[in-house]
Write a structure and sequence with these properties.
single chain; 353 residues; Rossmann fold; 4-stranded parallel beta sheet; 13 helices; globular; disordered N terminus; 2-hydroxyacyl-CoA dehydratase
């Protein structure tokens, strides 16, 4: 098994798994946030530590952890996002205790009470990081961190806007690789690289008029999955997944209380299935589909990803009511997905203009 490695070895890394993790706080404490993504190979060890009826994302992360693949991390921050993630935290804490481990609860509502609750959870994380590093995270440091990650999101949106054109000037595979790089590198380095890439891309013309699809559903931890979809005769124009385009859809409005600003922004970001906001999720998908002139939607779920599987029937019905074509696929996130090729190629033919 090939272990994950950081692509910015000069600074200490703090691991994280969920998109509701406040990266700005991690960076303010002196760490580069490093997203734990697992692997796409058959599980070797995780079934000995966790029930086999959990998703590949969690099991593969445990697989790498118990074999020493995340030893370079200073610690890991978990979010209470689903039952599988809670069990991942339990296993990690017992069998791979790192120097720093934190577990943050997430409310499900976006009310003022919910914002207050999440803000308090972020304050607990801030205090824990300060105690661990023996350094104070002051207002100026946190504001600089917020500005840096805001720039990252803005640069991503600029690059992603190149997919508005038909044909797109950047592929889904390219965007997912850049997103994967963001998860494992310093934002200062990533920002500089994206600025250079933007100048190159704006001068490049891609001739490729394939059907335009939006990918929605479970986290995608393998860039090759996007490449596979595009090999089936479609252009992936937007990834409505927490490891894709949707991750960058967050707007932090700074105030005198920056922790509260973070709590409000993260709680009100486009919701995942865990937040139980089906209407809001469908509305977001529909708005993105109209903006990017999407021809069809591929709704994907990892096996045993219960929070996403639960929503499939009603999401399909609601999108069909809006006259949007949807195909649902399920995979185990392991190896080649070629068994899905016939269905995806048929869907590509169906949505061709």
């Amino acid at each position: 098994m090939e272990f994950e490695r950081s692509i910015t070895p000069e600074k200490q890394k703090m691991g994280w798994l969920c998109s509701y993790t406040p990266l700005e706080l991690i960076y303010s404490a002196g760490f580069v946030p490093y997203r734990i993504m697992g692997h796409s190979y058959p599980v070797k060890s995780a079934d000995s530590y966790i029930h086999p009826n959990y998703c590949q994302f969690v099991k593969s992360a445990i697989d790498i952890a118990v074999e020493g693949g995340y030893e370079f991390l200073e610690g890991v921050i978990f979010m209470n996002s689903c039952d599988a993630m809670r069990r991942c935290h339990d296993v990690w804490k017992k069998f791979k205790p790192q120097k720093f481990i934190s577990f943050i609860d997430i409310p499900m509502g976006d009310s003022l009470l919910g914002v207050k609750y999440l803000t308090n959870e972020f304050l607990k994380l801030k205090t824990a990081l300060e105690e661990y590093t023996k350094k104070n995270i002051n207002h100026e440091t946190l504001e600089e961190s917020i500005d840096l990650f805001t720039e990252s999101r803005s640069l991503y949106q600029q690059l992603n806007s190149l997919r508005l054109s038909n044909p797109p000037l950047v592929t889904g595979e390219e965007m997912m690789r850049l997103t994967s790089d963001f998860f494992k590198s310093s934002p200062t380095v990533w920002n500089a690289n994206i600025k250079t890439l933007l100048e190159e891309k704006e001068q490049k013309l891609t001739i490729n008029r394939k059907p335009r699809v939006l990918l929605s559903g479970s986290p995608i931890h393998d860039v090759e999955f996007i490449s596979f979809i595009e090999s089936c005769g479609m252009n992936v124009i937007y990834e409505d997944v927490c490891t894709g385009s949707k991750f960058f859809d967050i707007n932090i409005v700074k105030s005198d209380d920056l922790i509260n600003s973070l709590g409000e922004a993260y709680l009100n970001r486009p919701p995942c299935a865990r937040m139980m906001k089906i209407k809001e999720r469908v509305s977001h998908i529909y708005e993105i589909s109209q903006k990017f002139k999407i021809d069809g939607i591929i709704h994907h779920s990892l096996k045993f990803c219960d929070v996403y599987l639960y929503d499939v029937p009603i999401i399909k019905d609601m999108l069909n009511e809006k006259e949007i074509k949807v195909v649902f696929i399920e995979s185990d996130g392991i190896g080649s997905p070629n068994q899905l090729r016939t269905r995806l190629e048929a869907f590509s033919e169906m949505i061709k203009n």
